[in-house]
Amino acid sequence: MHIPDGILPAQVCAAGYAITGVATWYSLRQINRRPDPAAEVPKASLLTAAFFVASSIYIPVPPASVHLILNGLLGVVLGYFAFPAILIGLFFQALVIGHGGLTTLGVNATMMGIPALLAYHIFQSRDVVGKVLPEPTRTGVFAFLGGALGLGIAALIFLALIIFNIPAELNATAEQAAVLTLSVGHIPLALVEGTFTAMLVLFLRRVKPELLEG
Amino acid sequence: MRLRFKFAWLLALALASGTAPALAHGVIVEHRQVNAVELEARFETGEPMANAQVLVYAPGNPTEVWQEGTTDDQGRFSFTPDTSQPGSWEVMVRQAGHGVLTTIPVAASTSGGEPAATPATEVEAGSNSLISPSTTLSPVQRGITIGSVIWGFIGTALFFARGKR
Fold it and tell me: How far B16 CA sits from the closest chain A CA (Å)?
């Protein structure tokens, strides 16, 4: 779902960098307000490695083929660390694996990072919104929602970016059909990532619950 | 998804001013063999990029599309560059927001209807040798690079997990 170089016009790339800059500043400020800002760096670093590798894991969803993103998972588990983690992960993906590109780094970070922050807030609202559910179910359901919606919103942003930026010389109908096919392929992926997030969060809750207090 | 391209350069053995008229009820068919470029677009997974849109740009005119088309089921597309415009031809293959802009060197045509002089790397003894983009890393190099990056992340985690001194 990474947007490579040369697909988007320069204004969109610049806007992506601007949004990424603001979001990074805001996330780092939130992190810096914690009593010990470095305490969560090991967790964030390991999940950045997971994010970096995840995009090489392909899942065939006929007729398309999608790969894991894990941005919702990072949001749920890392909180505000998710945005810098995704930015760093995307930078190395662009350089090493060739997913995405340096000009579209800002756009891609916005596309995956902002939904990750939303996923964090969805997960954190579990004690307010999900009072009716008993405790392990509540955490599991909200982790699932965070993981699935984080990816789903990112896929919608991707769809919108591509559809509104089809160059005039391309056959727009064919390109729209192709993008829609690919986006529909992300619905099962959202379920997979949501389930994966719920499993990981429930595991952490049992083994090391202090990791989830973001 | 990153794309990796392989180009099969088909060298046609053009005969000197090779026209061969075929006459039948006033219909004249002349043929001449020319240099064509065939390209094959695949996703990183090896899956062919079928029915992707292809835009060809002539050198020196990056804003106007010279030729457009779509790849076939195997992700293949071929076109015949105009050898009177030597230089770097640019080909954009794109589908569903995935795509790549690649450059194909085309040499100037020589006089006398000879086939266009082709870059040295292009063809060996008229075979369909494939030319990959030069930036492609070997699987070992890729593995080492990816491994180093992952080790960097793990190292960072270990450094910050070392506890208070």
Answer: 37
In CATH, what class is A10-212?
mainly alpha
pTM reported for the whole predicted model: 0.76
**What is the per-residue pLDDT across A1-31, written as a single tens digit (0 to 9) for each?**
788 887 788 888 999 999 999 999 999 999 9
Using one digit for the tens of pLDDT, what is the confidence trace for B62-108? 777 788 888 888 878 888 877 777 778 888 787 776 777 777 777 76
Residue B81 and residue B64 share a domain = yes
Q: Which of A45, A162, A174 sits opposite B97 (nearest CB)?
A: A162
Query: Which domain, by its residues, includes B35?
Result: 3-134
Considering the domain architecture, whether residues B97 and B117 belong to the same structural domain is answered as: yes
> Residues for chain A: how many in total?
214
How many angstroms away from the CA of B111 is the closest CA of chain A?
34
| Buried b or exposed e, range A10-24, using 16+ CB within 10 angstroms | eebbeebbebbeebb
Say if residues B75 and B41 touch (Cβ distance below 8 Å): yes
In eight-state DSSP terms, residue A39 is: G
Q: Would you give the distance in Å from CA A195 to the centre of its chain?
A: 15
Instruction: Assess contact for A205 and A136: CB atoms under 8 A.
Output: yes
Asked if the Cβ–Cβ distance from B70 to A43 is below 8 Å, we say no
Same domain, B165 and B91: no
Which residues in chain B are closer than 8 Å to A37, comparing Cβ atoms?
none
User: What tokens appear for B131 in the block?
Assistant: 């030319």
Question: Do B29 and B103 share a domain, yes or no?
Answer: yes
ipTM of this model? Answer: 0.80
Domain tally for chain B?
Answer: 2
Q: Do B29 and A31 meet the contact criterion of CB atoms below 8 Å apart?
A: no
Question: Rounded distance, CA B55 to CA A172, Å?
Answer: 13
